[in-house]
Structures are given as structure tokens and as C-alpha cells.
Amino acid sequence: MQNRFLAADNFYRARPAQSRLVGQRIAKGCVTLLVAFPLVDYALRQFVHPLGSIWDKVVLLILALVAFNRVMRGHRPQAFAWSKYAGWYITYLIALLFMGLGSPGTSFDGLRADVYDMLFGLLLPFVVEPEDTPYFLYIAAALAMLIGLDGVLQYILAVPIPPGWVDVGEHVRTRVFSVLKSPNELGAYMEMMAPLIIGMGLAETNRIRKWIFLIGGVICLGTLLLTYTRGAWLGLGVGVILVALAFERRLLAVVVVLGVIGFFLPPIHHRIMDLFSQVYYIKSSQGGRLVRWQQAFDQLAGSPLFGAGLGRYGGAVASDKGLSIYSDNYYAKVLGESGLVGLVLFFALHIRIVVELVQRVVRRASGYNRSIALGGLVGVLALLVHDVVENVFEYPPNCLNYFLMVGLLLLWSRTFDGQEENHG
């Protein structure tokens, strides 16, 4: 039976495309830069600042031109099923933009923050050939392992951190952040990539590559722990439990192991138990998450269906303009600024993404492919759960990575029929 499935060696040596599409090399180079976004963006902003602020816009423009050129030449790849739901959400946000023309700058910035990274995912079917997706997943995994190793080194060196990153009375060696510059954002990045990397390691037949991926995945999990980001721990735990209950009960052992580690390591144990303390509840009620979430409902008082308007609540735009603090819950941010209609459309979009991943990737993957599919699904669910307690989608590296990984996994699934035919 094994010869029916894609061998791991073939995962990295994808078959060449049957036809060389226009702009293939340019598109491949641009998508490679995107999957390496955290490192590329950090390096350009640190050392070539003018380019660092515009390079991703240039990449988006190039990919859009390549896609337009291909479509005009008759190339009509199938769009993702979730694209329709994204279209409804974007259309609604554009309508809110025109409703908020009294403050056009704020409304436009709010629209850009909500849809910009999504555009890259929508373009993927038109600029990436399914046979090339293993290459991009390999690059993404290699970069995540490198960032994970950097995080471990930061902990060993006890890199100094701002006092605000540690709760009062808490003693930790450091909270690692690497090139993402925030432990919360690094935790979100690791919770999405670590399961995928481990899945790729389990799928490998080459012993050296298998150990590289498995060790790299463990390093990424270690870095996730060392960020001391409770939202990322929660996201990964819930993601693993949901996938285990639905598809693979043996994954529950992973949750038990991680739970035991968390219980016996004092810094992690203290950080988790602090959530249940009276002090944390008082702090959260006075100026923390509880009061911030309550403010989301206050924003609906004037307009329950349509909210306060784009850029006016809960996110980076509202914070920069002095209109609101961060909501520390991306769904509360969506509710506060775009109302119940916006929240329903936003939920519909991401539920459709999860359903499509389950239908197109997980249920159709078998043999060597299944662990990769399950790892990818765990990471997507983890990030969506994490958004309950953080504005994860406000941070470009994580929002972009989410739509890229979703798109690449769905495109990869389009090679399954050909793989079964060739190995049958």
C-alpha cells in the first residue's frame, strides 16, 4: 500500500510543472521572500530601512501583475473555496469605509490593516503551481527552525527584556522574542509552525532529514515555552486536543506530556496558576483583558450591527490615533469596529478555511502525507484560539504566515490525485 502514496523524498523533489507559466521564476522568488517574511522584514528594516517599509507592497504588486498576466493569457486555476467568504467580508469592510468618510484616513488605515495580508493568500492559486508547494513549505520550516534556535540561544544568554514583559512578583530568566521582537508574537509563530515541522519530520523517510525536522520541531516547542506566552500555550493545547479528538487520539499523549512539563517547571507552573489568582482577576478587571473585552460591547451601544467604524477600536490603528487601547482579543476588535455583521462574516471566513482544510487536505491525505496535514491543521486552529486572548492578526508576520500556510497546504492537496496515480 505504501507505494500508492507520496514518498517523503518526492515531497521535496516535486514533479516539474507540465507547462512553464509566464513569470514563474519571478513569482517563485517573491513567494520565497514571503514565506521567509520574519527574517527578511527584520533584516531590511534594520539595515535598509527605506526598503524595509515598502518591500512587501512591491512583492504584492509584482504578484498581482503576474496573476493578471496569466489570467489574460487564459490561465484559470481554481480559486480557494474560502475566497468567496473573503470576498463577502472585504465587500462589507469597503462599505464601512464609505460610511466612515468623515475620517477617511482612519477608515482607510483600518481597512488596510484588516485585509492586506489576506490578499497574498487570495493570490496564491494564480501565482503558485501545486507542484512547487513542497519547496515553499520546506523553506518555511527551515526558517522557523532557525528562529526557534535563536530563541533558545536568547534564553541561554539571558537577553535583557523590558520589565513590563514580566508580571509583578514573577521571576523568569528572560522571555525570548527573536526577530519577531515580541514574545507574544514569537509564541504565536511557533505554535503554528512547530506542529507542521514535527509532522514533516514524522513523514520523512530519509533518516538525517527526519532527525533534523524532529529535533527542529522540539526546539520550536522549547522556544514556545520560553516565550512564556500563555495565549500561545492555550492555543496549541486546544488545537492538539481538537485534532486528536477528531482525527488522531494518540495526540492526546502530547497534551499530557506538555501538561506534566508545565506542572513541574516552576516558572511555567507559576505563570499558569497566576491566571487563577485573585490578584490577576483584580488587575484584569481594572485595566486588563476583562475590562478591554467589556469595552468591545460598549462600542456597540450606538450601532450594534455595524460597530464604531474601521480603525476606531481595539487595534493598532485605533491605538496609534489615540482612539482606543488594544482589545487583547481580535474577535472583540472585529466586533467593536465592524459590529455583529462584521463578526459573523469574519467567523464565516475562518470556519470555511478550517472546513476546507479538513475536507481538501486532512481527509484526502494518507500515508506519508497525513502527519503533515494534521500538523498544519493543529497550527491553524492554535492561532485562531490564540486570537481569543491576543490581537495576533494585528501583527503582519503572523497574519501573513497564517494565510500563506493555509494557501500552500490547500494547493499541496491538489497534487494528491496525481501522486496516487503515479505511485499506484
TrEMBL record:
rRNA processing recorded as keyword: no
Primary location group: membrane
UniProt cross-references to InterPro entries, sorted A to Z: O-antigen_ligase-rel_domated, WaaL-like
O-antigen ligase-related domain ranges (all copies): 217-347
Topology relative to the membrane: Multi-pass membrane protein
GO molecular function, one term: ligase activity
Keywords: Ligase, Membrane, Transmembrane, Transmembrane helix
Domain of life of the source: Bacteria
Lineage: Bacteria, Bacillati, Bacillota, Bacilli, Bacillales
Subcellular location per the Swiss-Prot or TrEMBL entry: Membrane
The protein's name: O-antigen ligase
Cellular component annotations (GO), alphabetically ordered: membrane
Residues that span the membrane, as ranges: 21-40, 52-73, 85-104, 135-157, 210-226, 232-247, 252-269, 330-351, 372-389, 395-412
